[in-house]
Amino acid sequence: MSAPPVATDHPTPTAPVLRDLPLRAARVRRGIPRPVRRTLVVVALLVVWQVLAEVGVLTPDTLSSPIDTVRTAVDMFASGDLDTALLTSLQRAATGLALGVPVGLVLALASGLFRVGEDVIDSPMQMLRTLPFLGITPLLILWFGIGDTPKIALVFLGVCFPVYVNTLVGIRNVDARLVEAARTFGAGRWSVIRSVVLPGALPNILVGLRLALGIAWLALVVGEQISSDGGIGSLMLQAQDNLRTDRIVVCLVVYALLGLLSDLVVRVLERVLLTWRQGLEAS
Amino acid sequence: MTSLLPGTVPADTTADTPVAALAVDAHDVRRRFGERDILRGVDLQVRPGEFLALLGASGSGKTTLLKILGGLDREAQGRVRVPARVSIAFQEPRLLPWQKAWRNVAFGLRGADVRDRALAALREVGLEHLADQWPKTLSGGEAQRVALARALVRDPDLLLLDEPLAALDALTRLRMQRLIADLCARRGLTAILVTHDVDEAVTLADRAVVLREGALAHELPVDLDRPRDPSGPEFGTHRDQLLGWLGVGNAATPSEDPLPEENTP
């Protein structure tokens, strides 16, 4: 081993100017905690809205005040209007989802796992996917009339595609090296699908489900405003005819809450089904 | 199906060697990818209980050969005979992240005592206490040991190791080398190790072969006593021999090239 060569013509190093890095402990934490700050913003907006209504800038014809809206909501519950409509809407959404999610899933599996399936299914699905499904509403009315069926069909169509697309992406993205390893250790075709492909695609399948739940409500808003035969949408349609902005706002809030609830459901599902992903956080 | 009797085999494996006395018997193995001939006629015989190191520069076809032996590449030409039970440990652990460690070890096993067998294999690699962990909570070395347990639990007649230690840190790598040496000695495993690491090859192997331009170019029996001391003179001779064949020869005398210019703007 020879000693490192002695530097002869290297420039002498000059000391750089050092600066303090602002570390966490050194930073003074002041002001309101973040959760409080967030809530305050919402409360402030509601107050502004209420004040604008009191002053007369917002007339009840334009937008009812928050307090009026709450009062209306209580009335609508008391009269049974709201729960009846809610039940009808929930039933339609559930039926559409119960049909659309499995169909999207099965089509994606057929397309993702078998070459024949891909050739037969994928291009038609990708073509149909580009159709704005809400645009089909007039056709659905012509085919199914104005009862439950066109609404369910609309939810079905809206739900089917996001589940299909995301499941397919999930299957395609499964690590080929895991599949190879599974084969090495004696897994047959079905075993690979069951223990490698499906669990690997599950995160994407759940993303598809989350999108599907959101779209289900969207489809229902449109579908139920076709005609006055039950559901939150037709409640809004009536309110519009009667210039009742308070009832419209109540319905909007209900929709928002339903969306929030759907998201919660998928979050719980993710927590239960994808525990392995949270392994690091849990330990 | 291998009724191979260790100890009854002559040390030199010539073409006359009876086929039944081999754990691997490959003749004129060829593989091309598009226009590139990766393997141009490899002949390889491995005796039962032998530990073979397969060396070669990147792109020399080491991993390709290993995949063919492991039955993962059926597009090759030639004749390849391997035992029925072949296990592979890959460069990455390749554990299923959605199955706990012991389930990964037990993957594909059948029977009532599957968990016990998996736990026994985990005990062999010193990880029984992590049996119920998710793979994502394991360190790189632990995951690789679980993968090793998964390969061992099947009681393989041939263990293929595709650079399983390459991604580990230096200390873990040394520990793993010792573990593999122990396991192979205890079980009398037949193993083929693909590696870039000449020291690893000399530490573990009974014989090292160098793959170059798609064929086996050199062969070196390693008849050193175990455990092997990397600082010993004989170890050094073997190392230099292999390094020479790999084109980075004469490491014993460090190159006198000037250090690259530092402090340049």
Task: Spell out the blueprint of helices and strands.
The complex is a heterodimer of chains A (283) and B (265).
Chain A lengths: L33 H22 L10 H14 L1 H33 L1 H15 L7 H8 L3 H25 L3 H9 L4 H36 L7 H10 L3 H29 L5 H4 L1
Helix pairs in contact in A: 2-10, 3-4, 3-6, 3-8, 3-9, 5-6, 6-8, 7-8, 8-9, 8-10, 9-10
Chain B lengths: L23 E10 L2 E11 L4 E5 L6 H8 L7 E5 L4 E4 L11 H5 L8 H11 L15 H13 L5 E5 L7 H18 L3 E4 L3 H7 L2 E6 L2 E7 L11 H13 L20
Helix pairs in contact in B: 3-4, 6-7
Keywords:
A: 283 residues; mainly alpha; MetI-like fold; 11 helices; 0% strand; flat; B: 265 residues; alpha/beta; Rossmann fold; globular
CATH architecture of chain A: Orthogonal Bundle
CATH fold name of the domain at 19-195 and 210-217 in chain B: Rossmann fold
**Alpha carbon gap, first and last residue of chain B:** 66 Å
Our Rg estimate of chain A from Cα atoms comes to: 28 Å
The coarse silhouette of chain B is globular
CATH topology (fold) name of chain A: MetI-like fold
The CATH architecture term of the domain at 19-195 and 210-217 in chain B is 3-Layer(aba) Sandwich
Provide the β-strand percentage band of chain B.
15-25%
- Would you tell me the structural class of the helices and strands of chain A? mainly alpha
Number of domains of chain A: 1
Biggest sheet record of chain B: 6 strands, mixed
CATH class of chain A: Mainly Alpha
The total of helices of chain B stands at 7
What name goes with the CATH superfamily of the domain at 19-195 and 210-217 in chain B?
P-loop containing nucleotide triphosphate hydrolases
- Rounded mean pLDDT of chain A is 89
CATH superfamily of chain A: MetI-like
Mean pLDDT of chain B: 86
Low-confidence stretches of chain A: none
Secondary structure class of chain B reads alpha/beta
